[in-house]
Amino acid sequence: MRLPRLLTQPLLRLVDFPQYTIVGAHAPQNSVDIWLMNDGLRQSVTTNCVVAALRPLTFALANVSAQPARLSFTDRATGAVLGTIALRAERTIEVGSTALRLFTASGSAHFSLPWARFQAYSLFERWRTHRQQRTSRHNFRLTHRDLLALLAFYICPRPVVLVTVAQDQRVNMFPMDLIGPTDSPWFSLALRSTSPSVQTIRDTGRIALADIPVSYASIAYALGRHHALPHIDLATLPFTTTPTPRFGLPVTTAALRTREFEIAHVHEVGSHTLFLATVVSDSTPAAGADASGLHSALHHVSGLSLARRQVTDRVS
What is the value of pTM for the model shown? Predict the structure, then answer.
């Protein structure tokens, strides 16, 4: 698949932006709202919508109607709709009094960019994905439809944390962003099932999450290679660590917030293993607060949002 001739060098500058970029935000983010639209009803799910798997792209929402619906992403300041994702109900995971509904994405719409520019971007993204899949056997394949839906989901900034797991003195630490609360007692974490750490989490039922400052972006990306490893040497980490209060799991001393979770339920969902957990400790280290008691935490956001801001800045 060759790059379409339509995308000449000037046009490439309009569409060749990253799929995802980083932003600093106070957690929880307050710039984008997520609404579940179902049979004329409008329900806020900003803190009740998580990715449960990437292949197929699957979302989990607690205690909502198991009917076809759509997610709508709106700018909190202006109310403008930035994108939508059409949802198809798949199955329900019953956990105590919680009904965790699983939906796959059946399509998406994007309003972050002018229509013509987005169509050119979509064409370019299809070519770029094809090239990456052809040149790298390690690339994780998403369908083009699912990729566009995932980019719509990341219009809402998603926190990136460092996860620590350990068993018998063997420790691993890696970044994750497929995490989040649900409208229930359960916190959700989705990890690719091929990761060696899946079995560690299953065996120990313990995990620690460290919110990190946006200045840790390059470190987090470098630690991404740990996903493929069963354990690491803590001495090779580019920062100092401190043990968590309950489980003694090592986390960075630069953490803005540290939470420990017990894993209560494990489910296979497509390409990923979905962990449902409850928090057992939640602390904000003194080093993680600035003068106002807040700090800018690392988040992922769709490159479409970055391009939208560039368009807005030029117009204003």
Answer: 0.89
